[in-house]
Description:
Layout: H1 2-34, H2 37-48, E1 52-58, H3 68-83, E2 94-100, H4 105-118, E3 123-124, H5 132-142, E4 146-147, H6 154-157, E5 162-163, H7 169-182, E6 187-193, H8 196-199, H9 201-212, E7 215-222, H10 230-239, E8 243-247, H11 250-262, E9 269-271, H12 278-283, H13 285-288, E10 292-295, H14 311-320, H15 336-348, H16 357-366, E11 396-402, E12 407-409, E13 414-415
Parallel strand pairs: 1-2, 3-4, 4-5, 6-7, 6-8, 8-9, 9-10
Antiparallel strand pairs: 10-11, 11-12, 11-13
Amino acid sequence: xxxxxxxxxxxxxxxxxxxxxxxxxxxxxxxxxxxxxxxxxxxxxxxxxxxxxxxxxxxxxxxxxxxxxxxxxxxxxxxxxxxxxxxxxxxxxxxxxxxxxxxxxxxxxxxxxxxxxxxxxxxxxxxxxxxxxxxxxxxxxxxxxxxxxxxxxxxxxxxxxxxxxxxxxxxxxxxxxxxxxxxxxxxxxxxxxxxxxxxxxxxxxxxxxxxxxxxxxxxxxxxxxxxxxxxxxxxxxxxxxxxxxxxxxxxxxxxxxxxxxxxxxxxxxxxxxxxxxxxxxxxxxxxxxxxxxxxxxxxxxxxxxxxxxxxxxxxxxxxxxxxxxxxxxxxxxxxxxxxxxxxxxxxxxxxxxxxxxxxxxxxxxxxxxxxxxxxxxxxxxxxxxxxxxxxxxxxxxxxxxxxxxxxxxxxxxxxxxxxxx
Length: 421
């Protein structure tokens, strides 16, 4: 009896240990089956590797084109894509380096040098307008590709490291001219920056506008830091145009609209979406209704989501950041650029094993029909450009109109190559 009890007791004592051993073996087997060696190795490699650096050169705090939301969007976009599995074949994490040019010519070049020193493999959504040729020289010498930049200079249009996703700001203005022409407005007054690149702007776009059927009848340079905008509006009125093309910063655009309201200058307006603040247009809707806006992408407003479902992902990523500047109900159009550049980079480099500026350039040269969620036609970075826009592989722009409450985008884009020789 005692022997039986001791035997039963011993067997019972072994049972928990045996069950634990079996559980451990089973768990190990499940782990081996569930995580193939290649995936585990890739995860380990991505987790242990230093983050891949990308940069953005932009006038975050400049009185011309400055917008902190651009920086917020750049950071939020990288966080969103990192959170969805990272970049490249191994799911590498990306670190963003932002350099604020403050709209200064020397600082623009200093920012380009910073990108080289930081070892970035690419830049996203660059915008330099006081010394674009100098910036291009630095980045081209280093072989750093610029994805989704907004070209403002011949050097950038033809650069071997320029990979604009959009057709560019000049093409956007051509789209605005198309909108003006459709509305019967064929005599246009240009209001533009007094920056060095602004002086030659009229002569540059005039042949393209004429090809559309629109004449530029006056050229008004607005000084940076101006405090009284009524003289500029009065100058426009003396030219008696059919409409006004505003090529300036959001802050100046807002002041011009306020001055037009003050002088009861009810002239149709148009330009790039970044110039026209939606709240300003709603505030002065008596004079802004019918404003024509054009860009290579649909206007990023929630009323356009039904026609362009890809905008849902953009709004979700911005909202997830928790930044008030990126609230989908208040978001600025300039926040869209960094996100679409991150999307293009992610999809174009999905098969990259080891990131470097050279491997990114190679990926861009071989990528075809990169999916951009239907927000612009599929992107093949190596497609030839048009005329002087040698690097602009996207030739399309969307025309939008402010209806007094929202900006509504037409479904079909305009191919601008028909207006450029």
